[in-house]
Every structure is written in structure tokens, then in C-alpha cells.
Amino acid sequence: MLCRFQSRQSDREGLLSYFDWDPRTLVEFPYIDAMAMFDREQLIKIGGYDNDLYKLGWFGWEDYDLWLRIAGAGLCVSFLPNVLCLYRHHDRAMSNTTNLFERELVAHLFEKHRALIERYPPKGRILGLNRSRLEEAVRTSKQDVSGQAFSVVAK
Can you tell me whether residue 125 is helix, strand or coil? Predict the structure, then answer.
């Protein structure tokens, strides 16, 4: 687990990931921090990191995409209940400057992980975005590609 701090390591602000592994929660929002240890063989089997998001200008989303693919593959995940490192959080951190929850990005992730989202239907948020904003983004994205609209159906 990672523990946040602002300026001095002794000024800890709290844990970044404190929820147990739950694919349903993961489909709703990216709640897992960036520090993880993986079984290399399993990581290779699911394709490792996908750099396509970075190439499209969506920086910092490779981890979330990887976690969604881990959930989609049904792999086991365990959290260690100990703080293993500290994470300095500052105003210029990538998590503050990246295009968080950009509609087009979420629409892309929705299409890529549709089967997982259908397996674990989210409630109010999908991939970190309010359902209504996602439906609009997906509809716009689909119209741009095929000229046809569709909506996200809650189960």
C-alpha cells in the first residue's frame, strides 16, 4: 500500500488504496494506486502494459487499463495490509494534470472493457465518469465512427 504525504514524509495524509479487490468497484472508478507486484507470467498472458493510451495522448491510464484487464481475465489480487512506501503528492503530479475522466477516454475504455462492465454492472459511475456523461460520450463516439447512436444499458 502507498501512503500519501505533501512536503515531509512525517506529514502523512492517508492511504491511497484501502478497499479490498473488487472488480465491481473497479468498473465504477479507478481506486487502486500505482504500486503493485505482479506474477510476470500472468502479466504477459494478458498482454502486459498497453501503451496505446499514451500514444493517443491519454497519459497515466495504463495502470487502470491493466487493472481492468486483470479483472476481465479473472485473475486473483491480494492487498498487503502494510504501508510499503510513501508517495509524495504535489500540485504538479500527473494525477492532478492528466486528462482525468475525459469523456472520449472513458468511451474508449468502455468499448475496450465492455464485457467486464456488462459482467459487473456499475451503479452511478462507470470508469470514473457519471453515467449520463458516459452515455453522451459513447453516443457521440459511435456517431462519429458509424453514424449510429446507442446507449449504455444498466442491468
Answer: strand
Q: Extract the C-alpha cell encoding 62.
A: 495504463
In this predicted structure, what is the pLDDT of residue 146?
41
Q: Are 71 and 42 in contact (CB under 8 A)?
A: no
Q: How many residues does the chain have?
A: 155
Report the share of the chain in percent with pLDDT over 90: 25
Residues forming a β-bridge with 12: 5
Give residue for cell 454492472.
121
Interaxial angle between packed helices 103-112 and 62-72, expressed in degrees from 0 to 180 and rounded to the nearest 10:
30
The CA-based dihedral angle spanning residues 145, 146, 150, 155, taken in that order and rounded to the nearest 10 degrees: -70
Q: State the pairing for strand pair 125-126/85-88.
A: unpaired
Residue in this structure with the C-alpha cell 495490509, named with its chain if needed: 81
Quick: pLDDT tens for 78-111: 877 776 776 666 666 665 556 555 777 888 898 9
Handedness of CA 17, 56, 123, 134 (dihedral sign): positive
Per-residue pLDDT tens over the stretch 38-50: 899 999 999 998 8
Q: Extract the C-alpha cell encoding 2.
A: 502507498
